[in-house]
Amino acid sequence: MRYDLAIFDLDGTILYTLEDLKNSLNYALTRHGYPARTLEEVRRFVGNGVRKLVERGAPAGTSSQELDRLYETFHVHYKQHDLDNTRPYEGIEALLEKLRGAGLRLAVVSNKVDYGVKDLCGRFFPGAFDLAIGERPGVGKKPAPDMVNEALAQTGVARERAVYIGDSEVDIQTARNAGMDEIIVSWGFRTAEELAPWGPKRVVSDPEALGAALTEPISAARPPERG
Questions:
Q1: Which domain holds residue 58?
Q2: What DSSP string describes 11-58?
């Protein structure tokens, strides 16, 4: 096969988490006297971690001290409500089972806080991933390549035998900063039109197409496509 390791983004790629993120953000905002945000607004805010989500959701000019308080309130609420509406995208569980059956190693790298990444992967995909890495002190968030490099080091897989899979411009940048192949999915938090200016090398529209892209033999590798 083309790859030995597939590294997945979490939110918007394998898990639909948008409603729970919105609800926790709005809890924090309204608790501190600020207006709530719509689901569409929150969709545009996600991708660079919770701190950036809070900054984007707060009114312009909010002080750093107040942002700290919003951030803490978000975390307290999200720890208790991160499973309320979150669910795997249709076809993802079958895809992961297929990939593991084909001998691929699997990892998750996310800008979500580390406890959330491990908790969600353990609950929704028990035993599916070799490792799951989230945001924590001392490790650069995506699009920095730090977490991807850590996944490569922990699995011992060569960079050229790994692929990064995500749903946003942050994921495109992450793969390129890490010097590895990318596959972008179009069912997540960004539309194909929003992703087009970033020039993704390969876009797939459903988990079946993603599975084919990940398991096709090297001899059958095709040029970049949109499907």
A1: 18-81
A2: BTTTEE-HHHHHHHHHHHHHHTT-----HHHHHHH-SS-HHHHHHHHS
